[in-house]
C-alpha cells in the first residue's frame, strides 16, 4: 500500500513523540511504499525565523534518518522543492468550502493562541490535501490531531472527482499511537509530556545528553509508598515511568513489576536512566555525524525530491487536463 505523510520541521522531539508515533511511523516503511516529506511550506504559516529554517529542515531530516527512516526504502523529500504541492493547493482552494475550513480545530486553536491569522494558516489543510492527493495514497499516517485534516482531504478529493472527473482515490487516515499509552510529564503525571518552557524537566528530548537524561529521571516525581507497581489511580507517576521503561525495553509491564519487586524507587530510576541512555546515545551520535555533513543531507533530500516529483508532476498534469488548465 502507498502511504504519504508530512513531518513538521519545528520543535524538539521527546521520547513521548517517539513512543507515541514516530516508532510506529518508521516501522511502516518496512511494509509500505512510503512518501515522507519535511513540511516546510506548512512551517511558515506560524511565526518563524527565515535564517533558521534551513537548519530546522536539515535537523528534522537528520533526526528521522538517525531514528531509522531509510531513503533506500522510502521516498523522503522536501515539500518546497516541488512546486506541484503549491500549485495543486491553489486549484483545490477554488473548490474548498470556507465553512469547512473555518471548522478546523487546529486553525481555531492557533488563532486563539494568538498566531496572527494569515490566510496560509487558514488554508493549511488544503495544502495538506494537495500534499497527499498528488501521490494517490491509500493511507495517511497521522497523529490524532490531524485526522480532521485527512477527512477534509477526502471530502476535497470527492468534490474534485465529482466536479471534474475521477482523479483521486480517497485516502484513509492511519492513526498513529492509537493503542499506545500517553506518556506524561516527569514532573506532573496529570499533564502530557511535551517540550515546554514551563516544564523543562518534564520531558526527555531525543537529543538530550546522558547527563541530562540521568538528571531528569532522578528528578522525576514519584508517588507515596515504595512499591514499583502499575496503578494509574494511586501511582500515576510510577505507572508513567513503567510505561516508558516498557516502551523502550520491549518488556511487558507485568514482567517489569516482577523484575523490580523489592527494589527501591532509586534503583528503578537508575535502571531506567541507563536504559534510556543506552537507547538514545547512538541516535544522538548518528544525528551529530549527519549534521556535520550538510552537503550529504542536501544531496539525499534533493534526490528524494526528484523521485517524488515524477509521481507528483504526473498527477498535476492529469488535474490540469481535467480542469481545463491546458492548451492541449
Ligand atoms: N500537518 C501535519 C502535522 O502537523 C504535517 C503534514 C503536512 C502532513 N502535510 C501532510 C501530514 C500530509 C500528513 C500528510 O503534523
Protein described:
- The chain is mainly alpha-helical.
- It is built from 13 helices and five strands.
- The strands form two sheets. A three-stranded parallel beta sheet has the order 1-2-3, sandwiched between helices. The chain has a two-stranded parallel sheet with strand order 4-5.
- Helix 8 links the parallel strand 4 (139-142) and strand 5.
- Helix 3 (50-67) crosses helix 12 (265-292).
- It starts with a strand and ends in a 5-residue tail after the last helix.
- Residues 4-6, 8, 39, 42, 128, 131-132, 140, 142, 146 line the site of tryptophan.
- Tryptophan (TRP) binds at residues 4-6, 8, 39, 42, 128, 131-132, 140, 142, 146.
The bound ligands are: tryptophan
Structural class of the secondary elements? mainly alpha
Give the number of helices.
13
Number of domains: 2
The backbone outline, from C-alpha atoms, is elongated
In the CATH hierarchy, what is the architecture of the largest domain at level 2? 3-Layer(aba) Sandwich
Rounded to an integer, what's the Rg over CA atoms? 22 Å
Strands of the widest sheet, in order across it, are 1-2-3
Here the CATH topology of the largest domain equals: Rossmann fold
**CATH homology group of the largest domain:** HUPs
How helix-rich are the residues, as a percent range?
55-70%
Q: Given this structure, which CATH class of the largest domain is correct?
A: Alpha Beta
Mean of residue pLDDT values: 96
Q: Count of DSSP E strands?
A: 5
Question: What's the SSE pattern?
Answer: EHEHHEHHHHEHEHHHHH
Percentage of residues in strands:
5-15%
Distance between the termini: 33 Å
Stretches with pLDDT under 50, minimum 5 residues: none
Amino acid at each position: 500500500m502507498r502511504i504519504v505523510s508530512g513531518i513538521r520541521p519545528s520543535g524538539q522531539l521527546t521520547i513521548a513523540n517517539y513512543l507515541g508515533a514516530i516508532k510506529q511511523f518508521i516501522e511502516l516503511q518496512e511494509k509500505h511504499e512510503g512518501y515522507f516529506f519535511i513540511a516546510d511550506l506548512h512551517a511558515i504559516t506560524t511565526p518563524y525565523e527565515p535564517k533558521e529554517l534551513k537548519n530546522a529542515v536539515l535537523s528534522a531530516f537528520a533526526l528521522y534518518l538517525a531514528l531509522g527512516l531509510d531513503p533506500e526504502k522510502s521516498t523522503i523529500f522536501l515539500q518546497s522543492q516541488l512546486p506541484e504541492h503549491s500549485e495543486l493547493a491553489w486549484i483545490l482552494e477554488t473548490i474548498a468550502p470556507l465553512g469547512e475550513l473555518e471548522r478546523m480545530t487546529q486553525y481555531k486553536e492557533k488563532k486563539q493562541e494568538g498566531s496572527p491569522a494569515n490566510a496560509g494558516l487558514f488554508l493549511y489543510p488544503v495544502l495538506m490535501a494537495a500534499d497527499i492527493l498528488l501521490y494517490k495514497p491509500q493511507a495517511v499516517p497521522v497523529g490524532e490531531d490531524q485526522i480532521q485534516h485527512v477527512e477534509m482531504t477526502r471530502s476535497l478529493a470527492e468534490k474534485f472527482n465529482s466536479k471534474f472527473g475521477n482523479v483521486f482515490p480517497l485516502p484513509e487516515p492511519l492513526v498513529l499511537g492509537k493503542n499506545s499509552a500517553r506518556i506524561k510529564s516527569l514532573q506532573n503525571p496529570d499533564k502530557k509530556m511535551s517540550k515546554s518552557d514551563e516544564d523543562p524537566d518534564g520531558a526527555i528530548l531525543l537529543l538530550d545528553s546522558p547527563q541530562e537524561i540521568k538528571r531528569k529521571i532522578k528528578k522525576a516525581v514519584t508517588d507515596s509508598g515504595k512499591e514499583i507497581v502499575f496503578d494509574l489511580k494511586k501511582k500515576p507517576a510510577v505507572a508513567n515511568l513503567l510505561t516508558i521503561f516498557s516502551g523502550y525495553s520491549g518488556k511487558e509491564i507485568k514482567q517489569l513489576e516482577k523484575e523490580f519487586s523489592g527494589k527501591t524507587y532509586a534503583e528503578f530510576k537508575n535502571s531506567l536512566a541507563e536504559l534510556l541512555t543506552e537507547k538514545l546515545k547512538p541516535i544522538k551520535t548518528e544525528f551529530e555525524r549527519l549534521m556535520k555533513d550538510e552537503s550529504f543531507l542536501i544531496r539525499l533530500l534533493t534526490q528524494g525530491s526528484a523521485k517524488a516529483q515524477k509521481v507528483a508532476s504526473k498527477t498535476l498534469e492529469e488535474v490540469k487536463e481535467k480542469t481545463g488548465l491546458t492548451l492541449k
